[in-house]
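Below is a filled-in request sheet from our internal design queue. Each sheet records the structural input a requester submitted and the sequence that came back. We keep these sheets so that new team members can see what a complete request looks like end to end.

REQUESTER: design group, bay 2
PRIORITY: normal
MODE: inverse folding
CHAIN LENGTH: 479
BACKBONE (tokenized):
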């Protein structure tokens, strides 16, 4: 069983995934300098579980075994569990300043728990029982799971079966006595090079004819036939350098995403949790999306706290902290942060029990939370850039600062408030640059689904007819 950060790293070393970085095979992800920051971030979910002051948020009693487990492997049993999830996420973000990846599998497990229960009820299948066995294994070993939803999707105007290449959606190519054979890919898979299992799910609502694409299953990431190709992030190669230019060298820029390819991967039946039930694929997608959208005011709220702190420091170091418009912009950043956090708490507080007994956040409010993230994080970053100034984008290299010939010029001409070394000012500007640009913003836009997918939920759940009815009553319109 994995307990410590060291246990976790040892487990990753042993499993030997088929990972590629920059076109080259990675023999050991735990010693690769580009991957270590992402592993460090995920490792925080193990480290904080052992810290007495955060234990209450990071651990919980399993409703299946009565044993103490990581909250990241837990099925929510109450509204309190839903709220504690959000508190936990904000707390971990304060330590990493980046995504720590483990929530995706956490949400996938919760989505499958309630959905498999409901499939069985209607179809007489035994997916729920199978899934519970898988869950007990994950809980007892304290493993990290990737939630695998997004397929590459090819031509978006075509359904899975209409694509010229059928593998652009992950699908079952063969049903055998000993299991099913999977082919295809999952894209943008957060934390996958440092996880143990992937829980694949259908990427969208499936229609008649799409049966092979309505598949959910758990697969060890070192299964034969799996290849992981790690994605680039903004300025990620600065993590390979010495000095201060990386900004946040110890942890990732964002999550650490990979394209995962499945070339005829055999999955035994006891790890298959949906196979052809097209009428439940939409429900599974909705459950997962809601559970993941619930999170963002927690994790991004925590990341924004650091951005606000760094922005305030940049202002102090530059001598602008007392200007009223700077103070007001910092207040605005706090307002935007607490707004997204309030959304996460609200959808959790308004959560309810599913048929399986697992608790589920309010879907409309969870979608609203994520929708605000697609805007507020950009605005928070915009204000950070406004306050920090153009210097954030034009700083010289760390090597210039340390150069025996020109270091003196950098120190002299980038000095600001007396008593603050130029290097200190540069450090905070680099941290801000790292946390407010490129992939960080795109992740806020598209992580847990793009804004349009949240707007669809307003159309479905927003109850416009009821609003129209109320307006008519007050206006005295009869029909
Ligand atoms: Fe968790 Fe946030 Fe990362 Fe998603 S973006 S995996 S919710 S930390
Ligand atoms: Fe994300």
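RETURNED SEQUENCE:
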């Amino acid at each position: 069983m994995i307990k410590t950060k060291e246990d976790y790293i040892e487990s990753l070393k042993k499993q030997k995934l088929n990972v590629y970085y920059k076109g080259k095979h990675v023999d050991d992800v735990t010693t690769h300098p580009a991957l270590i920051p992402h592993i460090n971030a995920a490792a925080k979910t193990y480290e904080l579980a052992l810290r007495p002051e955060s234990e209450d948020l990071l651990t919980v009693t399993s409703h299946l075994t009565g044993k103490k487990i990581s909250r990241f492997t837990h099925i929510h049993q109450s509204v309190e569990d839903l709220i504690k999830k959000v508190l936990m996420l904000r707390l971990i973000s304060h330590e990493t300043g980046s995504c720590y990846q483990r929530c995706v599998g956490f949400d996938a497990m919760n989505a499958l728990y309630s959905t498999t229960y409901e499939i069985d009820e209607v179809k007489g299948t035994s997916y729920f029982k199978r899934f519970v066995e898988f869950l007990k294994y994950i809980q007892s070993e304290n493993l990290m799971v990737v939630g695998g939803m997004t397929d590459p999707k090819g031509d978006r105007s075509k359904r899975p079966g209409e694509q010229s290449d059928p593998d652009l959606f992950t699908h079952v190519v063969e049903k055998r006595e000993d299991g099913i054979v999977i082919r295809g890919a999952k894209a943008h898979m957060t934390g996958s090079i440092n996880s143990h299992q992937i829980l694949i799910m259908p990427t969208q609502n499936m229609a008649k004819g799409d049966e092979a694409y309505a598949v959910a299953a758990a697969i060890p990431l070192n299964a034969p036939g799996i290849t992981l190709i790690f994605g680039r992030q903004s300025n990620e190669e600065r993590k390979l350098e010495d000095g201060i230019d990386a900004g946040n060298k110890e942890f990732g820029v964002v999550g650490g995403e990979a394209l995962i390819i499945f070339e005829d991967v055999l999955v035994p039946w006891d790890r298959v949790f949906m196979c052809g039930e097209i009428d439940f694929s939409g429900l599974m997608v909705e459950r997962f999306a809601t559970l993941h959208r619930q999170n963002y005011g927690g994790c991004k709220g925590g990341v924004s706290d650091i951005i606000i702190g760094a922005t305030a420091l940049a202002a102090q170091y530059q001598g602008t902290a007392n200007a009223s418009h700077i103070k007001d912009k910092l207040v605005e950043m706090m307002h935007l942060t607490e707004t997204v956090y309030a959304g996460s708490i609200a959808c959790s507080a308004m959560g309810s029990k599913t048929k399986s007994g697992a608790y589920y956040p309010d879907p409309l409010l969870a979608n609203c939370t994520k929708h605000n993230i697609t805007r507020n994080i950009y605005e928070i970053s915009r204000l950070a850039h406004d306050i920090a100034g153009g210097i954030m984008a034009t700083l010289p290299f760390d090597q210039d600062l340390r150069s025996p010939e020109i270091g003196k010029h950098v120190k002299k001409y980038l000095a600001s408030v007396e008593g603050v070394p130029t290097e200190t000012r540069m450090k905070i500007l680099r941290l801000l640059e790292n946390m407010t640009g490129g992939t960080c913003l795109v992740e806020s836009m598209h992580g847990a689904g793009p804004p349009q997918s949240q707007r669809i939920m307003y159309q479905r759940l927003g109850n416009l007819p009821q609003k129209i009815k109320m307006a008519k009553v007050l206006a005295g319109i009869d029909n």
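SHEET NOTES:
- The chain has two domains: 5-78+96-281, 290-462.
- Residues 324-349 form the longest helix (26 residues).
FILED BY: M.R.
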